[in-house]
């Protein structure tokens, strides 16, 4: 069974789950050949007893459209996370969580999965796009930012801070990185 890359973006009201809430998340499932085979998104009710971090709340005031989008059609986290696991399990392929940065997005998704479902279809792993870019570009980690990535890696897709939009955009970027990396001859094949 081939891998399927689940590009995921989260919108939150603070830096860590528990004291703060995941407000919204979106996932876009891509095949290695860049076929978008499915999407998932949910806007979540905030966690009981949690509150917004002041700096994050201040940032949200600069994003009124994205804020309105992530506060529409709210559902309980328990229901959303169960729907999410069922969606992932229905996909044809071994799921790989992909994010930019994975350290932030996976933190929230994994915490919510374990808290509300008790399992993670991704196990304990996530693929960080910036780390992958570091390996492909053969640069230092801090130099492997989007502004230093080749322009041909980027599709003309918006970055709106609406979770599903950003997951689709980042998934296309990852597939372009994957294609670039797989197109280059490996050192072993060059030695032949």
Automatic annotation (TrEMBL):
Gene3D superfamilies: Ribonuclease H-like superfamily/Ribonuclease H (3.30.420.10)
Gene Ontology MF term list: exonuclease activity; nucleic acid binding
UniProt protein name: Exonuclease
Record carries keyword RNA-binding: no
InterPro entries (alphabetical): RNaseH-like_sf (IPR012337), RNaseH_sf (IPR036397)
Keyword annotations: Exonuclease, Hydrolase, Nuclease
Keyword Lyase: no
Superkingdom of origin organism: Bacteria
């Amino acid at each position: 069974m081939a891998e399927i890359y689940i590009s995921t973006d989260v919108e939150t009201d603070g830096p860590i789950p528990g004291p703060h809430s995941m407000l919204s998340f979106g996932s876009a499932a891509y095949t290695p050949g860049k076929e978008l085979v499915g999407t998932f998104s949910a806007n979540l009710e905030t966690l009981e007893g949690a509150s917004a971090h002041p700096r994050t709340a201040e940032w949200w005031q600069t994003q009124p459209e994205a804020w309105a989008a992530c506060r529409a059609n709210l559902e309980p986290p328990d229901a959303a996370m169960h729907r999410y696991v069922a969606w992932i399990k229905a996909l044809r392929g071994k799921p790989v969580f992909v994010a930019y940065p994975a350290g932030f997005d996976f933190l929230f998704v994994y915490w919510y999965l374990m808290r509300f479902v008790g399992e993670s279809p991704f196990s304990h792993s996530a693929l960080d796009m910036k780390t992958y870019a570091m390996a492909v570009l053969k640069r230092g980690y801090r130099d492997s930012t989007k502004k230093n990535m080749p322009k041909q890696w980027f599709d003309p897709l918006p970055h709106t801070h609406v979770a599903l939009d950003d997951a689709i955009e980042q998934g296309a970027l990852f597939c372009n990185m994957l294609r670039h990396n797989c197109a280059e001859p490996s050192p072993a094949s060059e030695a032949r």
